[in-house]
Every structure is written in C-alpha cells, then in structure tokens.
Sequence to fold (233 residues):
Amino acid sequence: MSNSTDKQFRSLIRSGTERRKILLRTNIILLLALLTMIFIVPVIHSVDHHFTKVLLGIVVVSGLFAADFNKTAFRFLFILGTVVILETMLSFFFFRSKYLADLTIILNILFFIVVTGALVTHVAMAKEVYGSTLICAINSYLLIGLTVSLLFVLMDIVNPESFTQVDSTKGSYSTFIYFGFVTLSTLGYGDITPDTPLARSFSIFTALFGQLYLVTIMAIIIGKLLNAKKTTE
Fold:
C-alpha cells in the first residue's frame, strides 16, 4: 500500500462514525478512571494504597486507546504501558521497595505526557466538534493535573523539604493530587507552600500553564463551532 493510500485510509478511519464511537467509549472510561483517581483516592488512600496503583493501571490501559497514535508512538506507549503495569503488579509483592515505587511514578509521568499530547493534537486536528472531542479536551486537562501532581510527588521524594505542611509518610499521593490541581486551577489556598526554588518555579509554571491551556483549548473549540455554523448557513 502506497503512502498516500495509507494516509487516506487512516484519515477515513479517524473521521468515520465508528472511530468516533470507539474514541468516545475509551475516553469515557479514561474520564471515569481519572475522576475516581482525583476524587476517591484522597478519601481512601490511607486505607488501601494498592487501590491507587490499580487506578493508575486502568488510566494507563485506557490511555493507550484514547487517541490516534502513529505506529511509532503506539509501540512506544504500548511498551511503556506494559512496563508500568508490570511495575504496578510487582509493587504488590515488593510494597516496601522505594526504587520500584519511584520508577513507577517516573514511567507514569512519561506515559501521561505522551497521551496528553496525543489528546490535545486530536482536539486541534478535529474538523468538527463531537462528544469525543470535548471529552478528549477534558481528559487532557485532567491528565495535565495528574502529571504535575506526580511531579510534585517526585520533588518531595528527592527533597522532603520542598514543601511545608506535608507529611511525606502519609498520603503523599492524595496530598499532592490536591496540591497539583489547586495550583493548576490557580486557587492557591496556601495550606501547602513550596519552599525550594525548584518547587516554587514549577508551581508558577503549573499555574500559568493551566490558564494558558484553558484559554487555548477553548479558543480552538469555539473556533471550530463557529466555522461549522458558518458552513451550515
């Protein structure tokens, strides 16, 4: 099959009704997993740490099929996702392994960054706004929040003095999921404050990036809706 024919075939699949249905289903699963991760984990994390790891695994699996990837990107994500899931499974048996836990966090961050980029690209390249397009935009924002939360966790692991009023021995995931989304949305309650230059700089970056993302993604979606309205008139 020639390159031009292959591109036309992939374009047909991506723009087809069946492909939109698949994307809608996978993104709904991803959305439910992310919402559970954000709202439920902070409540039960102190009771069952493994539940967090299982949810991260579900997010990884659903993220593999949540957007259109080229072959290279999909293979990379598949390998990375497989390693993440294996690391998660191993963590059930080696719960006290600090290095295993740190590696799992790093791999999750890499995976979420690639998936977020693919979701944003899908929204930007979509010719029209469908339900799957809107959910992709929501999922990408939630993945950004989860990614920065995990980066805050890493900062606290590397330097426990990066933040004040954070007990590193209890609920670090839930604490930094809260702090990550509060910072991303620029609420900034002040109950957790960054103390090191790196933590402060990244907190500023997170707040700015969150606002820029919302402005940009809203402009893209509104622009597509206006173009669709002009076309139908």
In short: The mean pLDDT is 81. The chain has one domain: 16-232.
